[in-house]
Design brief:
PyrdxlP-dep_Trfase_major, single chain, binds 4'-deoxy-4'-aminopyridoxal-5'-phosphate, aminotransferase, Class-I_PLP-dep_aminotransf, alpha/beta, pyridoxal phosphate binding, DNA-binding transcriptional MocR family regulator, 409 residues
Length: 409
């Protein structure tokens, strides 16, 4: 028995009883950070919390009141496992704003897109199956994939997103090694954590590669509507209706509602509804009615534009602070979303440096959180969504002190 296992048995009498899949459940580095980063004196560039104060309280309370007056009994009741029909109708209009044509019948409402990710993984993954994902990838997806005992194979990306030739090469390699490839998980727009966007040409190429090798594509698009200048390129789902598409109200409205959705090809949709019912019976009726009312009665596109403006200014503040303080380093300059991906000098280790940063009252997420294979030591994810422009500038100055200190400058 290893020292680790020994410790486990002493602290937890049920240690030997857990299912093998429980071994995949470990606190993410982001989660461990939240406690420290939430101290008021720390500038947190760590979590990806949307700036919910950008949404007027009065707008939400008006919706709450109307829902209770007009739909009280239904909003407080269990509902359909697929989701409230009115909301699914609205969701098709939201997706139309991103160029996707779909029927409300093919939408499954979930408890955030996080749960949609969990359901899709549950439906497709047996222990040992391979999921292809960008290098780096969303920490919350890696956690789910691990919990279903998937092997995660990271595929290289660059400033234009996932590299098609690298994907093709990896697929061929894994197939030759007798691995079972199940799906490609991709965040094509304003990537979390890399901040890059997949070009239109590459989208077409990647879909072609996946079709040719019979690999399902799982497109995760919570940030697509948060473009700063030009709108995001067409969704993969708008180019190929075999794609499973995940959307969310967490970044365009508020994450507290916990409402996201999956748009899936017919047969998969049926399985998703069954899996949803089995996991949660139904998504929150209350949240669904409130969001439906909000979409009915407010100019939601204008609200999204307000968020875009706020995030754009904050992104600019971060890029300016990086240019002023750390001109010799490199970073991505996103055209939307929440995140900048910073590359440190080779001799630094983002994970090892974190305690020193917290001592300097700045928090970030080490790149290692976004790799299943130990990569990312030379990277940092910086979030600009939540702190003010002044805090961002202060945070980057503090980070500069830390990096200079590590380099002994
Ligand atoms: N996918 C990505 C890429 C994310 O960044 C997030 C939230 N951080 C989610 C999915 C989950 O979002 P939610 O469950 O709030 O819809």
């Amino acid at each position: 028995m290893t020292a680790q296992a020994n410790l486990g048995t002493r602290l937890d009498p049920w240690y030997d009883h857990y299912a093998a899949r429980a071994a995949g459940l470990s606190a993410s580095e982001v989660r461990a950070l939240f406690a420290v980063a939430s101290r008021p004196e720390v500038v947190s560039l760590a979590g990806g919390m949307p700036f919910v104060a950008g949404l007027p309280n009065t707008v939400v309370s008006a919706s709450l009141e109307r829902v209770m007056t007009e739909h009280g009994p239904q909003a407080l009741q269990y509902g359909s496992g697929q989701g409230v029909p009115e909301l699914r109708e609205h969701i098709t209009r939201v997706m139309a704003a991103e160029g996707i044509t779909a029927s409300p019948d093919d939408v499954v409402v979930t408890t955030g897109s996080q749960q949609a990710l969990d359901l899709v993984t549950k439906l497709f993954i047996d222990p040992g199956d391979v999921i292809l994902a960008e290098a780096p990838s969303y920490v919350g997806a890696i956690g789910i994939f691990r919990s279903y005992q998937a092997k995660i194979s990271h595929v290289a990306m660059d400033a234009h997103g996932l590299i098609p030739a690298a994907l093709e090469e990896r697929i061929v390699e894994l197939m030759a090694a007798g691995e079972t490839l199940k799906f490609l998980y991709t965040i094509p727009n304003f990537h979390n954590p890399a901040g890059v966007t997949l070009t239109t040409d590459r989208r077409v190429e990647i879909l072609e590669i996946c079709r040719r090798h019979s690999i399902l594509v799982l497109e995760d698009n919570p940030y697509g509507m948060l473009a700063f200048d030009e709108p995001a390129p067409p969704a993969l789902r708008s180019l190929d209706d075999g794609v499973i598409y995940l959307g969310s109200f967490s970044k365009t409205l508020a994450p507290g509602f916990r409402i996201g959705w999956a748009l899936a090809p017919h047969a998969i949709r049926e399985k998703l509804i069954l899996a949803n019912e089995s996991a949660i019976l139904c998504p929150s009726s209350f949240s669904q009615f409130v969001i439906s009312d909000y979409l009915d009665n407010t100019d939601w596109l204008t609200q999204i534009n307000t968020f875009r403006g706020i995030y754009h200014s904050r992104k600019n503040a971060m890029i300016t602070a990086l240019e002023d303080n750390l001109p010799s380093l490199s970073w991505t300059n996103p055209n939307g979303g929440f995140f900048v991906w910073l590359t440190l000098p080779e001799q630094l280790d983002s994970k090892a440096m974190l305690p020193r940063a917290v001592k300097e009252l700045v928090a970030y997420t080490p790149g290692t959180a976004f790799y299943a294979d130990g990569g990312g030591r030379q990277n940092i994810r910086l979030s600009f969504c939540y702190p003010t422009e002044e805090s961002i500038a202060l945070g980057i100055r503090r980070l500069t002190t830390v990096i200079r200190g590590e380099l002994d400058l």
